[in-house]
Every structure is written in C-alpha cells, then in structure tokens.
Amino acid sequence: MKKQLIAGFAVAALTVVTLTSCSGNTGRSDAGASGSTATIPKGSTIGVSLPAKTSQNWVLAKAAFEDSLAKAGFKADVQYAAATNTVPDQQNQISGMITKGDKALIIAAQDGAQLGTQVKQAKAAGIPVIAWDRNITGTKNVDYYVAFNNYKVGQLQGTALLDGLKAKGSGPYNIELFAGASTDANAPVFFNGAMSVLQPKIDDGTLKVVSGQTSFSAVSTDGWLAQNAQTRMSNLLQKNYGSTKLDGVLSPNDTLARAIIQSVKSAGKPGIIVTGQDSETASIPLIMSGTQYSTIYKNTAEEAQAAVDLVTTLSEGKTPKTVIDKKNNYNGVITVPAVALTPVLVTKDNAAEAYKDNTTLEPLTK
Ligand code: BGC
C-alpha cells in the first residue's frame, strides 16, 4: 500500500511506504510493560527532544514541529540538547517532559544507546515514545520510529560516488571513506548501505582505499563534528597521498563534506568526487559548481509531519500503519515499527527539479 504524504512543499518522489505491520507490536503503549493506556487528548502538549545542532536539519526541525503540531491541534514543547554535556542534558530534558505531563514524546537521540532509563520512565507513565530520524537502541520501550530509509541513503551515496568517479574517467580509483558518529544509530546504517555498493568494487579492484581504513570504527567521525573530519582528512592526505592521486571520498553528510573539501583544497588536491546528505543551504552552491558531487534531499518538514500524523492517529485511538524492516530499524532488542520515508539523491543534474517546490533552496539552483 502506498500513500502520498504531502507536507508543506511536496516533492513528487518523496513517498511514504506504509505496510501493515505483522509484528503485533504496532499498537499504542498500552501494549507495553506498564499496562497503562496512552491517551493523547487534542490540545495536549507533545514533547520533542532534539539533539545538538550538528547539521541544518536539526535547526529546521524546531519550526517544522511547532508548525505541524499547532496545525494538528497540539501544543509543542521542543527542546534541543546543549552543545556540551549533551547526553545528560537530553536525558534531563526528557525526564522533565515526562514529569510535566507531556502526552507523547518524539525523540531524536544524541546518543541512541543512552536513553533506556528515560524511555522506561515514559513507558511506566503510559506515554508513547516515537524515535525520530535516529533510532533509540538497546530497549524495548520505543513504540515507533519515523525516519527516512537510512540504508537507502547509504546506497544512494555509494552509487553517487561510483557514478561521479566513472564520469571523471576510467579507473581504478583511489578513495577514502568517512562515516558519522558511532553514538548515532543511523551512522552504521548509512555506512552499511554505502558499503553494499562499494565493497564489491573494492573487492574487484575498481576502487582502492589507499589508507586501508574500511571498517566503521576506523572511519567514523566523533560527534559528527566537521573539525574531526577535516583533521582526519588532512592526516590521511599527509600520510598516503604525497604523490598519489585522490579521486573520491564517501562523506556521510554535507557538513562533513564541506570539511573534507576544505582539507583537500588546502592540500592542493581539489577536483575530487565527494558525496553528502541533507541538502544544506551551504552545500547547494558547491553542488551546482561541481565542487561537491552529490547530496541527499530529506525534507525535514515532511519528516516532522509524518511523526505528527502518527501522534494524531494515536490520539484518535487508531493503530498507525507501520513497516517492520530489520535492516533499518532493529535496535538491538526489537525491530521498531516504522514509518519510512524515501530519500532523494541530488546532483547538479537534477537539483533544480528536486528542489523546485522548496522556496528556501530553489533560488540557489538557478
Ligand atoms: C541525520 C543526518 C545528519 C546527521 C548529523 C543523522 O542522524 O540523519 O541527516 O546529517 O545525523 O547531524
């Protein structure tokens, strides 16, 4: 069953695939340990706990939630985790939301493995928990997961890297790999998706990772911080690329892509193929000039709307339609019933089309 979800500016290719779950685990939190019944009356307050602002999508998320919750008849309690002491800060915010009596929680985790106590507390209080964009791991107390298909994001990034390299000339190609923060459950999923495309090409010699660093733990970027990616790229260049040509870099998002591009530019090695994700305002001109080869478009307003729609469904006492997808949504204990949105790959070639209904990005693509 396919359902078109149109939120704010719509992109035709962005669809929500909704399948009726077969796990029996898609109901309200009254199915959980506490046995309490979740009620989310119209007009009640919904807690939205966001991580540190490591990329533009999180910045955009606040207004997106405030807007769609207001339109759906709820009050919004949106909070960001602080830049320092981020994990305890988010833990305290979530506990505070529960104590205050917020009726549902939408959580984008700073560290997906560190919220077990808080979601248990929510479950005991009969408050449904929706993991948003990032899964919450190591617990059965997560009711739903709303996100773009993260594995697909990785596959698109891997494919873009290969396509960009092929367009430059014939191989073999020298590349380096970057992944996001190990504390973010998305990061290994992005990486595994990308490697599902790249590994066979590494094995057949088309691609060569000159540093030899190919495991997630070797290539992850602490905190998703640009400075960490820039430092690692500079070290890689210094150690491995004296007279060796670098052809491409797998970057998991735009923030890190710009840091990587800065590093290769400083080393006097521009003109490489670099991937990204998020369609950040600062990266669109780089895409259009060919400095960054690709990005991924994940419409934050649409993603927020999908979570708010789920809250609305629960408040009406209905069972939301979800998909069970172990590869994307297994949290180490359960496969969290999910609403999966479809990401779009963007390069210079389709940017104008992809962003045509987005009034924020559209002028940049002209
Ligand atoms: C999000 C990406 C974002 C990254 C860094 C991930 O969990 O899915 O869109 O670039 O976090 O903030």
Care to describe what's here?
The protein has an eight-stranded mixed β-sheet with strand order 1-2-13-7-6-5-3-4, sandwiched between helices. It has two domains: 11-148 and 299-342, 3-Layer(aba) Sandwich (Rossmann fold); 150-297, Rossmann fold (3-Layer(aba) Sandwich). Mean pLDDT is 89; it is low at 1-37. Helix content is 38%, strand content 15%. It is elongated, with a radius of gyration of 21 Å. It is built from twelve helices and 14 strands. It is of the alpha/beta class and 366 residues long. The chain has helices spanning 56-71, 86-100, 116-124, 150-168, 186-203, 216-219, 226-240, 254-266, 284-288, 300-315, 326-329, 351-354, and strands spanning 2-3, 16-17, 45-50, 75-80, 104-107, 129-132, 144-148, 173-177, 207-209, 248-250, 273-274, 294-297, 338-341, 344-347. The relative contact order is 0.17. Bound molecules: beta-D-glucopyranose.
Coarse structural class: alpha/beta
Low-confidence stretches: 1-37
Strand content: 5-15%
Query: Which value, in Å, is the CA radius of gyration?
Result: 21 Å
Widest sheet, order of strands: 1-2-13-7-6-5-3-4
The fourth-level CATH homologous superfamily of the largest domain is: Response regulator
End-to-end C-alpha gap: 36 Å
CATH topology of the largest domain: Rossmann fold
How does the major sheet shape up? 8 strands, mixed
Mean pLDDT: 89
Find the count of extended strands (DSSP E, 2+ residues).
Answer: 14
Bound molecules: beta-D-glucopyranose
Shape: elongated
CATH class designation of the largest domain = Alpha Beta
- Number of helical segments with 4 or more residues: 12
| Helical content band | 25-40%
